[in-house]
Amino acid sequence: MMGLSFFWLWFVSQPVSQALKGTLYIDGAAPPIATVDEDFICATMDWWPPTKCDYGTCSWGNASLLNLDLTSSLLVNAVKAFSPLKLRLGGTLQDNVRYQTADDDSSTPCNEFVSNSSEMFGFTSGCLSLSRWDELNNFFKKTGANVVFGLNGLAGRHIGSDGTCTGAWDPTNALSLIRHTVDNGYPVHGWELGNELSGRGTGARVAADQYASDVIILHRSLQDIYKRYENKPLVLGPGGFFDSAWFASFTKAASNTLQAVTHHVYNLGPGVDEHLVNKILDPSYLDGGAEAFKNLQNILKSNSDSTVAWVGEAGGAYNSGHNLVSNAFVSSFWYLDQLGMASLYDTKTYCRQTLIGGNYGLLNTTTFVPNPDYYSALLWHRLMGRQVLSTSFTGTKKIRVYTHCSKSTGGITVLLMNLDNTTAVDVDLSVGNGVADQSFAQLRIRESDATENKLMREEYHLSAKDGDLHSQTVILNGEEIHVINSSEIPHLKPKLVEPWDPLTVAPLSIVFAQIPTIKVPAC
């Protein structure tokens, strides 16, 4: 076992109390503890109409799949920046959607959702027209997005007064949409059945054995419709809140037909909660989010098949989030911690609710300007590779840390978050069995070589404007981040640091440190 230890320091402009010292240890000798998808970052596009309101606030505007302005250059560029971004199309109203088909009578209306308090979910059924589906697919092609479509999982079922569903899923309308999709050459990465119908359900619930039977029907249908294609789309489900017994029964019964089991995360509680910020900055509360990831991982291991775990939808706070919390800088502490934690437990994809819409969108609902979590997601996507490394931190519980192999440069990338509001933390890094490349070992002697970017450490220090956690403006390495010419995503430039230079994580800040000179066998 060989150890590498370095002390980093980064000076911040604001006065802070004397820095604490902590040690970050990475087990470089161990194999990766988990592996995520290359396009791990995912965002959702929802069905909610402008009249969707929560706690007296209507935050959705024209962000629905049915009315979003797909021609916006800023929207297009925001999605293209990920190259690719996974997009999951779905949400509560997906189980109340009818798909227009070529066989529809010309007199058959294809209406949008209308508010009606007597209807389940508070809205009448809506309709996806073929022309709108064509427009959406043109948008996906232009942006290079990988699309997962959530199908209506209630079609054909009888819903009892207590929400219990009886009867099998009727795939007729869904299969018409799928055939139209294939006939037009529209690529779909996966088809997901239903939304929040698992366990106790949200509005309605389906028994695990029946749900598994329905998934098997979907799988068989896709095998037939895509029989001319070597690469067939994924089958996903159930897209609901984790219930250990229900998920165990469902995944076992659907074995070998289900490629990804999807669950939803809203562990911060309702958007109206006045204690959301306190929860986000509480390490113990954040730790509690690991239970569902761990339990689902154990279920999948016990099944001994190839089904993997996804987070199909996660907005932190349900009922559209909370303005100036779930769309502000403070949200990035929760969001990035969720990404890191999910990765530890072999979650392959993490879909953020939403790309746009509600008070938890990555983009502003009306202007399309990125909110802070957009930049956090983009940096994760560009810097954090597929292999997850065993990492621990001692010295304070206020530091959250995750380490992956770097995505494109070699070496490792470390994500550090300081939840303390007054105290900076000096980081001492120790890598067990780390191997410095030859140039790194000679840097102190060959100081002139250190100007080569490939030998430099790249750091991205993120903080809120004016130290206000409710700010929607991000400071990157001391500079505000803004879109360019109203339509272009800015280049996110790192701070280049000598490899031996020390680093401090400022209070209430986030740091990505990409270190190409540290090599470990896992990478």
UniProtKB/TrEMBL annotation:
Classification via Gene3D superfamilies: Glycosidases
Cellular location(s): Lysosome membrane; Secreted
Record keywords, A-Z: Glycoprotein, Hydrolase, Lysosome, Membrane, Secreted, Signal
Domain of life: Eukaryota
Topological relation to the membrane, as annotated: Peripheral membrane protein
Main location per the UniProt record: membrane
Pfam families: Glyco_hydro_79n (PF03662)
Protein's job: Endoglycosidase which is a cell surface and extracellular matrix-degrading enzyme. Cleaves heparan sulfate proteoglycans (HSPGs) into heparan sulfate side chains and core proteoglycans.
Family, similarity comment: Belongs to the glycosyl hydrolase 79 family.
Protein name: Heparanase-like protein 3
